[in-house]
Amino acid sequence: MALRDDMLSWGRAHRALHEVRRPGFAEEAPAMLGGQAPVLAYGMGRSYGDSCLNPGGTLLDMRGLDRWIAFDQEAGLIEVEAGLTLADILEQLHRVAAPGRCWFLPVTPGTKFVTVGGAIANDVHGKNHHTAGCFGHHLISFRLLRSGGTVRRCSPTENADLFAATIGGLGLTGLILSATIQLKPVPSLWMEVEDIRYRDLHAFHALTAESADWDYTVAWVDCLAGGAELGRGIFTRARHAVTDRAPPPPRLAPRLSMPMDAPGFLLNGMTVGAFNALYWRRAPERPIRRIGPYEPVFYPLDAIRGWNRLYGVAGFYQYQCVVPHAASAEAVPALLRAVAEARDASFLAVLKTLGDVRSPGMLSFPMPGVTLALDLPNRGTRTHDLLNRLDAITAGAGGRIYPAKDGRVSPGDFQRGFPNWRDFARHVDPHFSSSFWRRVSAPAGHPTRGDVAPC
Amino acid sequence: MLKVAIFGATSAIAQAVARRFAGEGARLFLVARDAARLEVVAADLRARGAASVETATADLAETGGHAALVEHARLALDGLDAALIAHGTLGDQKAGEADAGAMLRELGVNFLSPASLLTHLGNLMEAQRHGSLAVIGSVAGDRGRASNYVYGSAKGGLRVFTQGLRHRLGRAGVAVTLVQPGFVDTPMTAAIPKGGPLWATPDRVAADIHRAMKTGPAILYTPWFWRYVMLIIRLLPDFVFKRLKL
Ligand SMILES: Cc1cc2nc3c(=O)[nH]c(=O)nc-3n(C[C@H](O)[C@H](O)[C@H](O)COP(=O)(O)OP(=O)(O)OC[C@H]3O[C@@H](n4cnc5c(N)ncnc54)[C@H](O)[C@@H]3O)c2cc1C
Ligand SMILES: NC(=O)c1ccc[n+]([C@@H]2O[C@H](COP(=O)([O-])OP(=O)(O)OC[C@H]3O[C@@H](n4cnc5c(N)ncnc54)[C@H](OP(=O)(O)O)[C@@H]3O)[C@@H](O)[C@H]2O)c1
């Protein structure tokens, strides 16, 4: 079997060779776990760093397992294969939508092009984390294939320890074959939305506090603004609208596409600065409430296929951390200042308050606090130095980074951030591994930076 | 509500076509040789909106069962608006060169079997005086090549067969379409290294097939550019072609 170099993560900053196997039916999967080298599932590759990569080992491309098993339209229960994407689920939810009786994803990340398996393995969260918790919170059960060939049904009451380890378990506990998910009833597929321009971090917290009856909240931050305006941005809040308008047509394919890598100079400090300033001014000073389709609210970036290639061949990093509330008043400004000082930043910086709905997942990323996510073009050492500074601030505040976004955190910072990682490690299937896991489970203080050198 | 029969329904391309019909609320009759896989595919199509999905299990190389299968489809769907024949095998060319028996089996699955089904389905549609028949050939059937002429000749045989059948059934208002895909990323081509603009997804090809089953062109190249690629390949003089390693 030839090794392939085309399995990338979303940041495109790691390059590696893999043997790739692709089951077309679940019954083919057990035979594909064989061999000496470790295996790892690969969904849509929407993780940014190296948690979906397994250099020198095998990737199981799950996109051939993209079938529906059952859809109970009365109860809003769906059972699907693990390679089905949220986009596919939404397409069917459009088809069955009726006035006053619609179903929606209970939790969705900022792109619909992720698989159900990937959503479980990272226990993804959305703009409604403060009301709904993580994806894993809405899982009824799943079927997990272990390397010995046994299939375990896992739920809160059956194989409960594997259930907890697999949710947010980074694909390390085995291969999820299928899952049963409880959908959420909504009055329509339309959203009621407000965009509110705000001046500083105090205003952000005030808006968060007064948005209790909005299911979805998030803020875009102008990360070049400093001083008194540090943290200024646009606060968006949304909820499912009560209306009997016919559902908006689903957007099945991106409207634009980025067919190749952009030249590296496109996203430099100047263009990003100009974009940030313009974008901030564009939002009206007084909020306007509008009713619109959900796509632009949840998936603004999905409108451009392959937008990650905007960052050129060197790729980019996403940095996402969460810091607990108590420390956030100091840590968030410190993080934003570090980014603003680097003058290199980030076109997309997002700030959100995470709630206290506990996930069943052992290694789930969210904790009550404030989460910040930034995109940073990969400019080699300079970028790595900035990321290390951000890690230090996060660790100092008792926070942690999000493995789905990470490709370079040190074992020490990971292990401090996820203190129960050793308990989790007991559930890891010995035949499964990833670049991320080999790095972060090394002894703390170990100089290793993973086995795919970021280029 | 269209009534559609699909032979070789567990094929990756056939599944992608079936999903498009399911999304329109069609009634489906699916035939494949692996009962367990067929049930997985049928459940998927039900959830995706098919008005009904019925199945039959059969080894389609056994042409003796074809008459009963087609009759089963007609009864299950109460008539038939469209049928797709999708099964096929990309056999080992070297084995076919060394062993005439292996070569004949390859021709059996890829030519005799679809030709037999086309005959039964064609007669049915001719009698009801409407319908659309599509069979998946391949660009490999457009010119014999050293690397796959056994498979290619079976697909090439379908070209002449569907030409004639179309000529005959046109008078009864029945369309016959030969589908000519290029390289499609499916289990059939799992062993071939992929990538580059010539490779298409099953869904891309299925969009074209789904449309063609309603409009009924004689030949559908999918994606479209293969029409021109194959035109050039067919026109290459023999002394040039001989030197190419294809
Ligand atoms: C534009 C964009 C916005 C995003 N927004 C958010 C957000 O708001 N919130 C959030 O939480 N995340 C967000 N993400 C991250 C994304 O949701 C996660 O990385 C998600 O896990 C990606 O799913 P995937 O199918 O692409 O999986 P991959 O990235 O391919 O894999 C992710 C992990 O899942 C494992 N895995 C995949 N399938 C299986 C399986 N069948 N069995 C076992 N393990 C499996 C892999 O081994 C790997 O560890 C965003 C990403 C992008 C690109
Ligand atoms: N992929 C390409 O690049 C390409 C290019 C040109 C043309 N085609 C043609 O497209 C069609 C579909 O192929 P695909 O690409 O979708 O590959 P595929 O997924 O491998 O489908 C081939 C299907 O044929 C079925 N089959 C083989 N022998 C059979 C038999 N004796 N009885 C019943 N079913 C049988 C297989 O059944 P099982 O699932 O039980 O094995 C399988 O479902 C084929 O006719 C192929 O020749 C493909």
From TrEMBL, chain A:
<dbReference type="Pfam" id="PF01565">
    <property type="entry name" value="FAD_binding_4"/>
</dbReference>
<comment type="similarity">
    <text>Belongs to the oxygen-dependent FAD-linked oxidoreductase family.</text>
</comment>
<dbReference type="InterPro" id="IPR016169">
    <property type="entry name" value="FAD-bd_PCMH_sub2"/>
</dbReference>
<keyword id="KW-0560">Oxidoreductase</keyword>
<feature type="domain" description="FAD-binding PCMH-type">
    <location>
        <begin position="12"/>
        <end position="186"/>
    </location>
</feature>
<dbReference type="InterPro" id="IPR036318">
    <property type="entry name" value="FAD-bd_PCMH-like_sf"/>
</dbReference>
<dbReference type="InterPro" id="IPR016166">
    <property type="entry name" value="FAD-bd_PCMH"/>
</dbReference>
<dbReference type="GO" id="GO:0016491">
    <property type="term" value="F:oxidoreductase activity"/>
</dbReference>
<dbReference type="InterPro" id="IPR006094">
    <property type="entry name" value="Oxid_FAD_bind_N"/>
</dbReference>
<keyword id="KW-0285">Flavoprotein</keyword>
<dbReference type="InterPro" id="IPR050432">
    <property type="entry name" value="FAD-linked_Oxidoreductases_BP"/>
</dbReference>
<keyword id="KW-0274">FAD</keyword>
<protein>
    <submittedName>
        <fullName>FAD/FMN-containing dehydrogenase</fullName>
    </submittedName>
</protein>
<dbReference type="GO" id="GO:0071949">
    <property type="term" value="F:FAD binding"/>
</dbReference>
UniProtKB/TrEMBL annotation, chain B:
<protein>
    <recommendedName>
        <fullName>Short-chain dehydrogenase</fullName>
    </recommendedName>
</protein>
<dbReference type="GO" id="GO:0016020">
    <property type="term" value="C:membrane"/>
</dbReference>
<dbReference type="InterPro" id="IPR002347">
    <property type="entry name" value="SDR_fam"/>
</dbReference>
<dbReference type="InterPro" id="IPR020904">
    <property type="entry name" value="Sc_DH/Rdtase_CS"/>
</dbReference>
<comment type="similarity">
    <text>Belongs to the short-chain dehydrogenases/reductases (SDR) family.</text>
</comment>
<keyword id="KW-0560">Oxidoreductase</keyword>
<dbReference type="Pfam" id="PF00106">
    <property type="entry name" value="adh_short"/>
</dbReference>
<dbReference type="GO" id="GO:0016491">
    <property type="term" value="F:oxidoreductase activity"/>
</dbReference>
<dbReference type="InterPro" id="IPR036291">
    <property type="entry name" value="NAD(P)-bd_dom_sf"/>
</dbReference>
